[in-house]
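Entry 14. Structure prediction run on the chain below.
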Amino acid sequence: QTYRLGRILATSALLVALLERGGNLRSFHAAVEDKETVSKIVLDNVTKEARLFTDESRLYCGAQISSRFL
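Output returned:
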């Protein structure tokens, strides 16, 4: 998505960051901003036993993520 900030055009990109307890951080740039992409990143990198804390984005509300972590 492109936003106009005064005379500057800014482009937003989806970045998913996963932080482990203890400080290990993994970040992923996603070319497509959709639930399927975010679900794949989360399900491939987070164990079933983990506690998942997210921001307010609706991209985490997919059925795959909800059924696994709720």
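The chain has a mean pLDDT of 80.
Filed with the rest of this week's runs.
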